[in-house]
Amino acid sequence: MMLCRQAMLLIAATTAISEAFTSSRCTNNAAENIRTCHYSTRTKQSWSELINETTDIDSPSRIEFISPLLQDGYPPAVKDYERVSSSDPKPILLYLPGFDGTILAPFLQFPALGEEFDVKAMQVSMDDRSTFEDLKDAVINFLVQECIYGRMGETYELYLMGESFGGILATEVAAALQSNTQYSNFVRLQGLILVNPATSYLRSELYRLGPPIASARWLRPIEIIPYIFGLTTKLVPLFLDEGLAIQQLFTILSSKGLPAVVNTPQREAYMGRVAVTLASRLNFMPKDTLKWRLTEWLEWGNAVFEDRLEVLQSGITEGEDDLGMLRLSREVKTLIVVGEFDKTLPSLDEANRLSAEVFRNNVVHVVTGAGHASTCGGTLNLMQLLRQVYPEVNRYRRNNYDVGTTEWKPRADLRGLVPRYDYAKIGLSPLLYWSSDYYKEWKDDEKRRDRFKSRGYLEGKNGVFGWIGEFTLALRKWITP
After folding, report:
1. Global pTM value
2. Helical axes 300-314 vs 165-177, angle rounded to 10°
C-alpha cells in the first residue's frame, strides 16, 4: 500500500533481529530514593508486527485518540471533515495530556488550532495504569494507523504538543520519530510544542508533596478521607494561578470580554458546551492511580529524559533513540510555553535549561499571570503564536473555516482577555449551545476507532438541550427577522 507500507516493511527488516531489551545501565540513587536509571529503551517491535496490530481497531483500551472538535460537535470542524476529498490535507496536531489524562486544559485553543491543523488528542482514563513505554508505543501505534487508515498511506506532517507529563512523552516520541530516516516516509515531524514540560518534576513541589499523599497508609474504611483532604489542601492549590482564572471567569460571565481565541458565535457556543458539561468530564483519580502515575510516569519519564540529556552532553549514542534525540535537538524547531506563576513545576527555570542545553532551535514564550493549569487558558492565543514560530502553517488556511479576529492583544483591564467579538452587552444564550447553528453532530460509522460517543439523553442533536436550542433559535429568528 503505497510509499507508507514500503517504509514500514523496510523498517521491519532493519529491526527484526534486535533483542527485546538493550543492556541495562541502571544505578540506584538511595539519597533521593528514586530510580535514577541511565534508561535503556525497550527495542521497538518490528513494524510488520505493529501494522498487524493496527488492524485490530476494536480491541478495548483505556488509552484513546480522539478528534475533540468532532466529538464536541464544532460545526466548522465537522464540515471540514465531511469534505470527502482534499488534495491538500491539513497537518496533524497531536496533543498529549498531563498525568491526569484529560484534554480539558487546552480546550479553548482547539477551535483556533483547527484553522490550520487536524486536531487530535490522547486521553487516558483515570483507572489506567499503563507504563511509560506503553504510552509511547500507543502514540506511535496511533501515528502508524493514521498513515495507513486515516491518510490512505500518504505521508503527512505532524506537530506534536505535550503539556506537563505530556511534554516528557512528546519529547520521547519525537526522538523515536527522528531515530530512523525511514520514518519520514510516513510522517514528517515539523514541530514540537512543550507546555510546562514535567522534565523538571524531580525538582518540583509536586514531587515533594505528591508521593507522601499517594503513599500514606490509613485504615481502609477511612483511607479516602485523608487522601481527599491531602488532594484539596496540598496538591490542587499547586495547579492554580494567583487568581487570574477566577477573574477571567467573572469577566466572561459579565460579558465584558472573552479569550482572544473565542472570536465567533460558534466558538462561544463550543466554550459554553464544554463549560456546562465540565462536571461530567472531570473524574476522581484513585489513590493507587496517583501513586502509579507519579512513579511510573513522572519519575520514570524523568529518568528517561535525563538519560537523553546525558547523551546530548557526551555525544555518545547507544541506540536508535539516542541518535533520534540528537537529531531532535538539532533539527526540529521547538516551542516552549510556560506559565509565569507555575507552582506545580519550576517551569521558568526549566524553559531556560531546555533552551540552553537541549533544543538548539527553540522559542520560549511566557504566559503572563498563568499558573500550571491555566497556561493554555484565556490569556494565550496559541494559534497566533504558532503562526509566528512556524510560518509554514499559514499555507494551510481554509477559506471555508471560520477565522474571526485573533489579532487583538490581551488587555490588562479585562484580565488578559479581549473585547467581545460582537461588542454585545449580553453573551450568547446557553439555550442556543446545542442549536443547529452552533452545533453539528458527527458520527463516523466507517472509522470505529473515532466513533462518536453519545453523552446521554441531555446532549446532542436529539437530546433535551438540542430540542431547547432549536426552539430558542426558531423563536429568535421569528422575533428578529
Report:
1. 0.82
2. 50
